[in-house]
Design a protein that fits this description.
With 504 residues, the chain is α/β, with parallel strands linked by helices. Among the domains are: 175 residues, Rossmann fold; 133 residues, 2-Layer Sandwich (GMP Synthetase, Chain A, domain 3), CATH 3.30.300. Helix content is 38%, strand content 24%. The chain has 18 helices and 20 strands. The chain has an eleven-stranded mixed β-sheet with strand order 6-3-7-8-9-10-11-15-14-13-12, with helices on both faces. It has a four-stranded mixed β-sheet with strand order 2-1-5-4. Strands 18-19-20 form a three-stranded mixed β-sheet, with helices on both faces. A hairpin with a 6-residue loop joins strand 16 and strand 17. It is globular and about 60 Å long.
Length: 504
């Protein structure tokens, strides 16, 4: 057996063992979650946070929920700042060395999410192994372990004032990978951790062109930029002319819907696409079926989940439920307790359960990223599905988009204003806008009610973005690459007005 064949065989054995772990938490979801919670409480009982809320006295879920408060980042930040200064045993046992820097889609100051040694290994790396195990289970003839994974991550920096380090989550994962795992990835660590985005793209392109790439891992928008660059530099028409063994793209960070057609056009053969749901705070879910974009919620990687129904979110004393009580089709804000030392932390994402046996979800948006100027409650899920329908009916392909309200002034009615950068423009822009508007009404009854006979909302206004507008805008904000995302929806005009100004 060749060295490559041996590696493939070993990986198959390891992945099958990981699959048994997945099957176990699918069979015993509530018990698994309960064990996760009390393991975390046990590890943190002697910390500052554990002493404050008397973790050692908590012996049931109800007591945990009554003693320990729900927190946002701003409320929990003092504890994170202590840990960043090198103080041990703040909200998790021992000293935390790594912090994932995340600013999300806003202009707000950066967030620093603690990454303990335990969360690094038992959450992030463990979930990564689950991802490959699921893929192998669905595609037993795969050869991805014989070839390399093209990864596209962020940059790493050292936090100079104290003895702690920070960077994009992807960079922390890369920097801590064991050597044998590092050998299966391209580009190398040095290139992967470059901070200047445009130089990094050139270096990545030069490195990976020479490799046998079997799979891709990254954020769809930034990966697409890289892949177009590789095709341009090689003079090839399709990616499988560069990498004949390419078979799968593991993607996350943003919705894949607006990019799916772009990726399908990049290869002669059919690629497999698998969605993952990970963030600085943890690795939460993985698409577990090749024919469905629903994702299996990971219940055995150090994260205990709670959920706030969105009709309760923002109230003084919201109802908070656990897995036992979730309902299919309802929109929830996620609350997590992690093995990185976050306790009942509201991460800002919203999800909808599509199944409770097993527990599968789709990500529906952000608690802060929606348009609700007049009670229409337009969420990202609506926007992306509306875009998909408009593209399908007009054969358009989009690169990026964002939308914001036109507020009512005097006797003027409001509206939603969009700016879209097309990869392939529709023949009739007006028809595209009408289809999008009609689709949003079909998808969202509140929007439909406000649009009825233009009583409150006028038809949406559509602006066509010049080529590379969103790239230039992100560059001007110092947010190229990595985990940085274009905000799809906003309840203010902050992003939209900036973009319109640059589009003149």
């Amino acid at each position: 057996m060749s060295a490559q064949g041996l590696v493939n065989k070993v990986m198959e054995i390891l992945m099958k063992k990981r699959m048994r772990q997945i099957e176990n938490f699918i069979k015993y979801p509530i018990e698994t979650q309960e064990n996760t919670l009390f393991n975390n409480l046990s590890k943190a009982r002697n910390t500052e946070y554990g002493n404050l809320y008397k973790f050692n006295e908590i012996d049931n879920l109800r007591e945990f929920q009554s003693r320990v408060p729900l927190v946002t980042y701003e409320e929990f930040e003092p504890y994170i700042e202590k840990a960043r200064r090198g103080i041990a045993d703040v909200s998790w046992e021992g000293k935390i060395k790594w912090f994932a820097k995340s600013s999300g889609t806003t202009n707000a100051k950066s967030k620093f999410i603690p990454i303990s040694d335990v969360s690094l290994e038992d959450c992030h790396y463990s979930a990564g192994k689950m991802m490959f195990a699921i893929y192998l289970n669905n595609h037993p003839d795969t050869e991805i372990f014989k070839n390399k994974n093209l990864r596209l991550g962020g940059s790493s920096e050292i936090y100079q004032e104290y003895d702690t380090l920070f960077g994009d989550l992807s960079a922390i994962l890369i920097d801590n990978l064991p050597f044998y795992a590092e050998l299966r990835n391209s580009p190398n660590r040095q290139i992967s951790l470059m901070s200047e985005w445009e130089s990094k793209m050139k270096a990545i392109s030069a490195a990976v062109i020479k490799e046998d790439i079997g799979c891709l891992t990254g954020v769809p928008s930034w990966m697409l930029v890289l892949l177009h660059k590789i095709l341009e530099e090689t003079g090839k028409e399709k990616l499988d002319e560069v990498w004949p063994m390419l078979e799968v793209f593991f993607h996350g960070g943003i919705s894949f819907k607006p990019y799916k057609e772009n990726y399908e056009e990049l290869t002669h053969k059919k690629l497999n696409f698998y969605e993952i749901y990970n963030a600085s705070e943890g690795f939460f879910a993985i698409q577990d079926r090749s024919d469905s974009k629903e994702m299996l919620l990971l219940l055995d990687n150090g994260i205990f989940y709670e959920f706030i129904p969105m009709d309760e979110f923002g109230s003084a004393d919201p109802k908070v439920i656990t897995l036992e009580d979730v309902e299919v089709g309802k929109n929830y804000a996620i609350v997590i307790t992690t093995n990185g030392g976050l306790w009942r932390y509201i991460i800002g994402d919203t999800v909808k359960f599509t199944s409770t046996d097993p527990f599968r979800i789709v990500v529906t948006g952000r608690t802060k990223h929606f348009i609700n100027a007049l009670g229409e409650e337009l969420i990202i899920e609506n926007a992306e599905e509306g875009i998909r329908k408009a593209c399908e009916k007009t054969q358009a392909v989009i690169k990026e988009f964002t939308a914001a309200p036109i507020f009512m002034e005097g006797n003027k009615k409001g509206a939603h204003e969009w700016i879209i950068e097309f990869e392939k423009k529709p023949d009739n822009i007006e028809a595209f806008a009408n289809i999008l508007d009609e689709s949003l009404q079909e998808l969202n009854s509140d929007y439909e009610a406000k649009r009825y006979k233009n009583m409150t909302l006028n038809p949406l206004k559509l602006n066509i973005a010049r080529e590379n507008l969103f790239f230039d805008w992100m560059k001007s904000r110092g947010k190229l690459g990595g985990q940085n995302k274009v905000p799809r929806l906003s309840n203010t005009r902050e992003y939209l007005d900036d973009l319109l100004e640059m589009n003149r």
